[in-house]
Amino acid sequence: MECDEKLLRFRQAHLNPFNKQPGQGQHDQEAGDDLSCRDSLLGLSHGDPGFQCSERVMDLGLAEDHFSRPVGLFLASDIQQLRQAIEECKQVILELPEHSERQKDAVVRLIHLRLKLQELKDPSEDEPNIRVLLEHRFYKEKSKSVKQTCDKCNAIIWGLIQTWYTCTGCYYRCHSKCLNLITKPCVRSKVSHQAEYELSICPETGLDSQDYRCAECRAPISLRGVPSEARQCDYTGLYYCGNCHWNDLAIIPARVIHNWDFEPRKVSRCSMRYLALMVSRPVLKLREINPLLFNYVEELVEIRKLRQDILLMKPYFITCKEAMEARLLLQLQDRQHFVENDEMYSLQDLVDIQAGRLSCSLTEIHTLFAKHIKLDCERCQAKGFVCELCKEGDVLFPFDSHTSVCTDCSAVFHRDCYYDNSTTCPRCARLSLRKQSLFRGPSAEEQA
Ligand SMILES: [Zn+2]
Ligand SMILES: [Zn+2]
Ligand SMILES: [Zn+2]
Ligand SMILES: [Zn+2]
Ligand SMILES: [Zn+2]
Ligand SMILES: [Zn+2]
């Protein structure tokens, strides 16, 4: 992070890399450590003939404060060297053990190198409308008055005098001058590739397993706040630096599912964006993840019943011209999954259930649907059932509360009649009789 800031100030020509400020001894120490670590990463010893060259290349904006040349003096050969460094870095990544901390560091370094190369290639390009970076799709914002905070540098975006961009995928916002410093890939792709929540509550493994570095940008952190504060994300359980974790609050899916706990907790920026993009996605199969929830949360049982009824009403609507014209099913367009199944829930569904909103709106829709089928529409009314067991009473519909539905042929009976005669469904019996006669041949059917 610090590196990015320096690089930024350097680019804005606010920082003369040759002016060492007093009190930077500590810093040099760190940079030195960083250097030796990097050497070992690249597999270079100081006796290695390749060392000089690579070292110089790596300094093109990657080291802490080792800008080794005057401002603005980037030459064509720099691009060559950067390309070479990128190739070397790729090789290193391949050679290091998979998922190791050193490999992750090398990946971050590779991203930096690529960004630097991109910047060198088009140094004076004039603010295009669309920029695609690390799977983000950045659009230039027109609004001048809105006061926003840059997701990269945490500073305010002054719309009047500064150009800024928003990613259409994940809503990441940043100054145009910060665009090339971005190291975080778009979370939208994570949502499409990995549309599954972490369902363990705050799965902490400890700072040591993170090598005392920010889980995202790899900046050094500790709980004592030295060199910078470690902030835990309640969703991932990992620790982040202050640049990657702004103490945003979010409802945690795992806490909802296991504890029916909707208290918002502190999460990292990246988790916040991911959770926001995921909130309406029906990815929670409650019955499988925590079936006990239905025993403890009455509202869930009510919602499940309403959803089951709506699925029973759906066949009426998709075969009824009038209902199609009235676009009745569009009442549920915000919760398309309610028209498809009765077991998948989005986090938003659960939030609305807990707040009592979903039960209200779903009951209203249920009433509206039932009214169409049973009262308003002759076509739908005609598709009602007369109980074949008692042959008495009103026309029945499968979503009526006092009915039972034959699972084989979908015929509808009074619940009481069906349980009394629980052995056979008269409709199924008739159907099987007809099938038998068909099997015996046309002459037999004539006789029947
Ligand atoms: Zn910025
Ligand atoms: Zn994005
Ligand atoms: Zn960080
Ligand atoms: Zn109808
Ligand atoms: Zn009956
Ligand atoms: Zn039947």
Explain what the structure shows.
There is one protein chain. The chain is of the alpha+beta class. The chain is built from 19 helices and 14 strands. It has a 4-stranded antiparallel beta sheet with strand order 1-2-5-6, with no helix packed on it. Strands 3-4 form a two-stranded antiparallel sheet. A two-stranded antiparallel ribbon has the order 7-8. The longest helix has 21 residues, at 101-121. Residues 10-75 and 444-448 have low confidence and may be disordered. It binds zinc ion (6 copies). One zinc ion is lined by residues 136, 167, 169-170, 172, 186, 188. Residues 136, 167, 169-170, 172, 186, 188 line the site of one zinc ion (ZN).
Short structural description:
The chain has 448 residues and is α+β, with helices and mostly antiparallel strands. The chain has 19 helices and 14 strands. Helix content is 44%, strand content 9%.
Cofactors, ions and other ligands in the entry: zinc ion
Walk across the major sheet and give the strand order. 1-2-5-6
Structural class, please?
A: alpha+beta
Any low-confidence stretches, pLDDT <50, length ≥5?
A: 10-75, 444-448
Radius of gyration equals 32 Å
How would you sum up the global shape? elongated
Q: Could you estimate the helical fraction of the residues in percent?
A: 40-55%
Largest sheet: 4 strands, antiparallel
Measured by DSSP, the beta-strand proportion falls in 5-15%
- What is the number of beta strands? 14
* Count, helices: 19
- The overall pLDDT, averaged over residues, is 80
Span from first to last CA? 86 Å
